[in-house]
Specification:
It is built from 7 helices and 7 strands. It is α/β, with parallel strands linked by helices. A 7-stranded mixed sheet has the order 3-2-1-4-5-7-6, sandwiched between helices. Mean pLDDT is 83; it is low at 9-14, 16-25 and 166-171.
């Protein structure tokens, strides 16, 4: 049976998307895509959010949940304990190949390998849009569990805005299949955390960046 013209186009886009996803899964390509996507500007904004909301101290524990190849390690001083957590062995290998100060743990955001109230800061950067329905709530609950009462969550993610043409194109090829709006993201966070600061900015996507502390 021959495919209809519209179906042929959809199959072609699907194949292209699959090829892009396989390529971006490679650590070096992944890092290059992050850089091309404006990561330097995002890093600057995240550093400012950290400076406003986190009291840095030697030996404090910072976990980077879904941290990929550990680009966020650059945002923290060398004297903190940085722990990258990801469920992709290839990304962890990419982080270890960089030979930077820090640890890498293969784990799932739904079951963090830390005892209650033992972590000072948790980062969740560009992760929410990769998580299927129901999982962000569980992951945020786990982060709340492992953070100390005065700990901090730093969350950054792209948000869905259908009227942004560039954003729509990028979402079509993004590996994250679950784009969420600002209201949905803040509601998920607010269930477990008190939001201390919140900002939005644009590069290609529209982004949200927030700092929060665990609710009792």
């Amino acid at each position: 049976m021959k495919s209809k013209p519209g179906q042929t186009d959809e199959l072609r886009v699907g194949r292209i998307t699959a090829l892009i996803h396989r390529a971006v899964a490679r650590p070096r390509v992944y890092d290059a895509v992050q850089t091309a996507g404006g990561a330097a500007y995002t890093d600057m904004r995240v550093r400012k959010a950290i400076a406003r909301s986190v009291t840095l101290a030697p030996g404090m524990t910072v976990i980077d949940v879904g941290g990929g190849t550990g680009r966020s390690r650059l945002l923290w001083p060398s004297n903190v304990r940085y722990v990258l957590i990801d469920n992709d062995h290839e990304k962890i290998a990419g982080f270890e190949a960089k030979r930077v100060e820090g640890e890498a743990v293969y784990a799932d955001a739904k079951a963090l390998p830390f005892a209650d109230a033992t972590v000072d800061v948790a980062m969740l950067s560009a992760v929410i849009h990769h998580l299927p329905p129901g999982v962000p709530e569980v992951a945020l609950g786990e982060i709340q569990r492992v953070l100390k009462p005065d700990g901090r969550l730093i969350l950054h993610d792209a948000v869905w805005r259908r009227w942004r043409p560039v954003g729509r194109v990028m979402w079509r090829f993004d590996r994250g299949s679950y784009p969420r709006g600002k209201a949905e993201i803040t509601a998920i966070v607010d269930a477990h955390f008190k939001i201390l600061s919140f900002e939005e900015y644009s590069i290609f996507h529209r982004y949200v960046l927030l700092a929060a502390r665990p609710r009792p």
